[in-house]
Design goal:
With 160 residues, this protein is an alpha+beta fold. It is built from six helices and four strands, in the order E-E-E-H-H-H-H-H-H-E.
Length: 160
């Protein structure tokens, strides 16, 4: 799947996916909040090898509309899925990557989330993974910030 982000205006961008079967979807989004969030997902999912979450689901045919259905987060059939795990992790990860909180503060916040659920933090969340995610995110956001208006940032998503 190809992922394309196009700078449309100083405040908006188009998020487009082109699946391997040539189906596509796009949406015009407000950049200030959506771009960091989408790039955090991309950095985490690609670096941690997450294949059945946001980008993996899009690659397999899920639509943007399905992700906009917020009832999914509280649906018991999704409770222990990789997709929901990703949401639990990317929330605190946002503060780590965009607000500069320390790794220790990130881990404490993540611990609070998982403790409230009666669960342990996933074992794959390590200091090395956090550094790798941070490097990936910095590369992605740097690439985005260097684009002129109407330029396209294209990323190949490999779900295998």
């Amino acid at each position: 799947m190809k992922i394309r982000f196009t700078k449309e205006t100083p405040t908006h961008h188009t998020f487009e996916i082109i699946r391997d079967d040539s189906t596509r979807e796009s949406s015009l989004l407000e950049t200030r909040s959506f771009m960091p969030h989408d790039l955090i997902h991309l950095a985490y999912e690609s670096t941690a090898g997450i294949k059945d979450s946001f980008f993996g689901k899009l690659a397999s045919g899920w639509t943007f509309a399905e992700f906009n259905d917020r009832t999914m987060m509280s649906d018991p059939k999704f409770a222990d899925t990789e997709m929901i795990e990703t949401e639990r992790i990317t929330g605190p990860l946002s503060s780590y990557l965009t607000k500069g909180i320390s790794e220790q503060s990130f881990m404490q916040g993540l611990s609070n989330v998982y403790s409230a659920l009666g669960k342990e933090i996933p074992a794959h969340i390590t200091s090395q993974l956090l550094r790798d995610i941070q490097a990936t995110y910095r590369g992605l956001i740097g690439q985005w910030n260097s684009l002129p208006h109407h330029a396209v940032m294209e990323i190949e998503w490999n779900k295998n």
